[in-house]
Each structure stands twice: as structure tokens, then as C-alpha cells.
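Please go through this protein, sequence plus C-alpha cells, and consider how the sequence yields the C-alpha cells. Keep your notes short.
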Amino acid sequence: MQLLDGKLTSEQIKLEIAEQVKQIKARGGRAPHLAAILVGNDGASETYVNNKVLDCKQVGFDSTLIRLPAEISEAELLKRIEELNNDDAIDGFIVQVPLPKHIDEDKVTLAIAPAKDVDGFSPASVGRMCLGMPTFVSATPNGIMELLRRYKIDTVGKHCVVVGRSNIVGTPMSILMSRNSNPGNSTVTLVHSRTPNMAEICRSADILIVAIGKPDFITADMVKDGAVVVDVGITRVADASRASGFRLVGDVHFDSVKDKCSFITPVPGGVGPMTRASLLQNTLKAQAQRKV
């Protein structure tokens, strides 16, 4: 078993991006600028956005964090998004989810200008991805593809099973893995909560990508010997033995599965860091496309 080390790989990507930023500045250009809107004070979102700010600093990006109260109206949030759409100093931006219940996330997604949609969630970005056209691929699927590429995982002709059908991870992963590309060219099965015989289908996977949001859901009896396992899930589980009072676990029961597979992502330190690195890659691409 070999770890697909997202932490190590993301650090390498950030070194590459930092070098590109140096070259941009040496040519008289400005650093790419990523903005993030954080609504309310969700703990997980706070941590994630703060890490993105640190990532920007590490690679030489400019960053702006816009904190808004949980009580902000939908109209006021949409107004702030439009301001960022029209701000020439901002190359790309994200609106951190989840949002308060009174705000329609679909309206927010639609309001973000496709040219600045570095999260890759807009219909324009998703549509171009489905057609195999250049676009911003959402950060988690893009990070997984980058991890498979850099570890030279053979995906051609393999059976890839994707567990979970979310618009953010599962559905785009199923499309990317089936495309005529490298990585890609896999035969893909997407399973979800209504799939009968899920365990049997998972056992047939050469590549198993799990994004279902249920801790320790995939156990050893659901994994084929020698499979490549990518665990997207991350959940806080109470643990009185830890100073924090919790531990982080994935959707895959790591301790039992690791002895059966050829490659596996750890949690934490697997897909998460790759997601953040992909957001930086998309921001660099956004600036290049704007030609500023």
C-alpha cells in the first residue's frame, strides 16, 4: 500500500505556482488576487477560508477576505458579488458554503461571473467541463485528477466506481474519469444511496472514489484487492482522548482498507490539500485569461 499524499503533492504544486508568480512580477505584472466571501461564523468554513488566505500568502497571491454577518439579506449578498464581478483588481473569488438558510445558494452560484468562478460551480463552467472544453474544473475533482496524474495511476480501461452523486464532487468526477484524457478513459459506475448491491459494485472497482459524507462507510469487505482508493470525506467524530475533543475521519475505514489496496488517500492530508491547491491553480488561470 502506498499513500496518495495530498499534503506533499500540494506543497509541490504551490512551489510551482510561486515560481510562476515570480515570473509574472518580473515581467511587470501584478500578483493574482483571490477573494473569498464568508457569511456567518461556521467553524469549519472559518478554518477552511483562513487556510486559503494562508495559501495565497505562501505562493505570493494577493487575497481579500470579506466577512459578512449571518443576518445579511440575500439581496445585499448578491450586491457584494456584483461588486466583485466588476472589480478589475480581483481575478477570481469564491462564496464559501454552506450559506444561511434564508439565502438561495443557486442564486448565488448564478450571480458569480463565469470568468471569475474559480470554484467551478457555475452552469457555464460545468457545461464546458461536460463538453471537454477549457474551463475552471471544481477544485476537489480537479485536485483528485491532479493527484492521480502525479502518482502516474493507470486509469485507462479501468473500472472506476464513484460513490456519491453531488454536483460538487461525485457527478463531475464521474464525467472526468470517463473522458478521453489522462487520467481518464475509465469505465465509470456512479452509485448512491438508492443503488442496490452497492457493496458488490464497489468490490468490482479498480479505482474507488468515495464522496458520500458518511464516516467509515466503506469497509474492507467492499474493496477489491489492489484497488486505488480515493477518500473525499472528512467528518469530525467525538474523541475524548484528544485535546480537541474530536478526530477527523473519512468515508473509508482506513485501518481495515489500507491493507487491501495499492494506493489510498489519508484523511486528513489527502484530498483536502489538493482542493486548496486547485483553487490556486484556477486563480492563476483566471488571471491569465483576463490578460491583466
